[in-house]
Design goal:
single chain; globular; 4-stranded mixed beta sheet; alpha+beta; 192 residues; 4 strands; Glutaredoxin
Length: 192
């Protein structure tokens, strides 16, 4: 059977997105789903950033089951540039590892993934050229892509992350919230 298509709206500062993306990777590796990711900024500029990082205790059991390092980050971060970097990495064939590295930097190491210097370091650790990465981020090469993803989410009535559009029309379903591997398998069984 062909993999079920999924369009996934996530944010790198959302612990629910973190665990759901890891679960999606497991299901995708089994050939059951084909995920494509869209940017959804939880705290776009000029909105005020909340104090401190997001609470993570609600998803700790899922993170533990997936072997994810999960700490409450010391700060909230803007994610526009992280989403731009993810789009750049996707074009370089590093979509999944770069996305995982962004989540790990924020939830594992408490790094400010809104800073270009931090993003360049993350990209360099995966072998991307630091000069090219800095230029791509400095000149907003993928800013329009991130803005289009946000506009698409608003058009679809998506107000939070993660949000997954599962399947294809006319049987397209919107699924929201943190999902485990078992949750995803159950959803896919119902999609067949």
């Amino acid at each position: 059977m062909a993999p079920v298509p999924a369009t996934v709206f996530t944010d790198f500062t959302c612990p629910f997105s973190y665990v759901t993306e890891a679960a999606l990777a497991t299901v995708e590796d089994a050939g059951a789903i084909a995920a494509g990711f869209r940017a959804f900024e939880l705290h776009p500029s000029p909105a005020r950033l909340p104090l401190g990082g997001p609470e993570v205790e609600a998803v700790r059991p899922l993170a533990d089951a997936l072997g994810l390092r999960l700490h409450r980050p010391p700060l909230a971060a803007r994610t526009r540039k992280a989403h731009e970097l993810a789009r750049f990495g996707e074009g370089k064939g590093l979509g999944r590892p770069l996305r995982a590295a962004l989540f790990a930097a924020y939830f594992g190491a408490g790094r400010d993934i809104g800073r270009i210097d931090v993003l360049v370091e993350i990209a360099a650790a995966l072998g991307l050229d630091t000069t090219e990465t800095r230029v791509v981020l400095d000149v907003d090469t993928f800013a329009a892509h991130v803005a289009r993803d946000g506009a698409e989410a608003r058009r679809l009535g998506i107000a939070g992350t993660p949000a997954i559009l599962l399947g294809a029309a006319p049987a397209l379903r919107l699924v929201a919230g943190a999902l485990s591997v078992d949750d995803l398998r159950a959803l896919l069984a119902g999609a067949g």
